[in-house]
Write a structure and sequence with these properties.
Blueprint: H1 2-34, H2 50-82
């Protein structure tokens, strides 16, 4: 009985060692995959799912649109100040619009 128990214990240790080695290999692969790429922006570091990446892209896109809109509105305001003697028609213009003569 003692010999069988010792053999069972050794078998369990061998199985445990194999499982541990397998898990360590898998962990190493995951760490490699999740390591930041060279030149990766800080906003992308630590993201683990596609949904997280999409949220970051959406947020950055909204910030770009906001910045472009602000810049456009600022340029229109400067044109009005620089041409204060003229009546500028700014009706219907906006960031996605095309200005023609």
């Amino acid at each position: 009985a003692l010999g069988k128990a010792e053999k069972d214990l050794e078998d369990l240790r061998a199985v445990h060692a194999e499982e541990k080695k397998s898990l360590e290999e898998e962990l190493g692969k995951l760490k490699y995959i999740m390591a930041p790429a060279e030149g990766e922006p800080a906003s992308a570091q630590g993201l683990t799912t596609r949904a997280e990446l999409i949220d970051v892209i959406k947020s950055l896109g909204e910030k770009v649109v906001s910045g472009v809109t602000y810049g456009f509105e600022n340029a229109v305001a400067q044109m009005k100040v620089a041409n204060s003697g003229l009546e500028l028609n700014t009706d219907g213009i906006g960031v996605p619009k095309k200005v023609e003569n």
